[in-house]
Each structure stands twice: as C-alpha cells, then as structure tokens.
C-alpha cells in the first residue's frame, strides 16, 4: 500500500451552528500534488488550518505525515512547510538572512544552513541578489524564494495557500517546475489556487462547495465526468450553485 501523507475522515469545523467545513474525507499519497479548490468562502483555509495543526477540528479524524491533528499538533508543525501569498518572508531581511532565519526556526543546523543556502541561491539564480533586501525583489522571485524556504528543512508535506497570486503565467510555470521537483523528491504538495491552468498541473484535485467536497479526481477524469473541455468549466459547473461567497 502506498504511504499516505494526509488522511482525513469526516473532518468538520463548526463556528456556533455554522459548518465552515462539513465532514470532508480524502487521502493524499506521499509525493502527490493535491489541488484543493473551492470558491471564496468554501472552507479551504479553515480546513488547511486544521491540517497544519493550527486549530482543532470540531469532529472527525485526520492525520498529517502520520501525526494526529488533535494530539500531535507540534509534531505536525515540525514536519510540514507552509507558504501563503500573505505570509512568507521578512521584507527587511536580505535573501540569505531569510534562508538562515527560517532554516533556524525549523531546526536545520547552522553548518547545513550555510552549505545549502549557498547552493539554493545558486539554483535560484540569485547570487548577485543574495545581500539584497527581499522587499526589493520582484514578486515572482519572492514567491520562488518563499517556496524554497518553506521546503528548506525537507518537510514531508508542504501546504501552499494561493502561492502564485498576482504573478504572470510564465513565472507561474517556473514556480510549478519547482513544485514538480519537490514532489519528485518525495515531498507531498497540498495546494490551493484560483488559477485553473494550475489545477491542470495537479495529480488530483478536490473541489469544495459550501464546506463539502463535491468532487475529487484527476483533472482528466473530472473533465470527462463533467463533459467539460477545461478545469475552468468543471469548476464553474460545480461552484455555480454555491450559496457562500467572499466575506
Ligand atoms: N473564526 C470564524 N468564525 C466564524 N466564521 C468563520 C471563521 N473562520 C471562517 N469562517 C467562515 O467559514 C467559511 C469558510 O471560510 P474559509 O476562510 O475557510 O474559506 P476559503 O475557502 O478559504 O475562502 P477564501 O478563498 O476566500 O480564502 C466562511 O463563510 C467564513 O466566513
């Protein structure tokens, strides 16, 4: 049996009588790229916070990297990486300082940080920018660096919350090359996005509507099942009945 990176069974989160996440169930394989889609307000962030060990579920079961979301939140935090468009790097630290800081937070040894940060800066083509404040870098570079930092400690699972918001399609494509590389090295990727071209790059996709998972399959199978030419069309067919919207 393939190793499961994430297991979720009837996972729910209630705020009062409102079910932000309503009995979602799915499993993600090790090294899989799993797209977590849903319209604004569908419950993605709430679900992701529970899986990252940042909030307790109201009911149901889940484990991430083999750790239980109720009893082993600290272990989960140590074995995952997290990146979002909103929270990522310190703008007033330079490239190397950011790598050192986050590497240190995640427990990578000083020697290893020194060694690997040099090769990372090289791989990213940022040698001449290594001492530049991150705030001065173009957005696309910031995001590539943020992703590299999120997986610097070689986590088992990396959670990406709309990681490519606001960047052009070419940069997004480069970003996805990095995602593929990470997945090939065994890191499981859990990613939310509003870009349907990115959804096509995922191995499997789940689509959340009003707190529930309404569909879950590979992009190819979903298109076939919904007689749709694109993921855009699949998403529209599923999400058009949603009652919730952005706050
Ligand atoms: N702390 C809270 N108290 C009450 N309601 C909440 C709370 N957090 C989220 N919600 C509600 O739960 C629902 C799901 O929100 P969530 O942020 O998880 O959606 P989302 O799919 O991530 O949306 P977006 O794409 O806009 O980030 C929304 O209706 C939101 O208002």
TrEMBL record:
This is ABC-2 type transport system ATP-binding protein. PANTHER family: ABC TRANSPORTER G FAMILY MEMBER 20 ISOFORM X1 (PTHR43038:SF3), ATP-BINDING CASSETTE, SUB-FAMILY H, MEMBER 1 (PTHR43038). InterPro entries: AAA+_ATPase (IPR003593), ABC_transporter-like_ATP-bd (IPR003439), P-loop_NTPase (IPR027417). It comes from Anseongella ginsenosidimutans. Keywords: ATP-binding, Nucleotide-binding. Residues 6-235 form the ABC transporter domain. One of its GO terms (molecular function) is ATP hydrolysis activity. CDD domains: ABC_DR_subfamily_A. The keyword Nucleotide-binding applies.
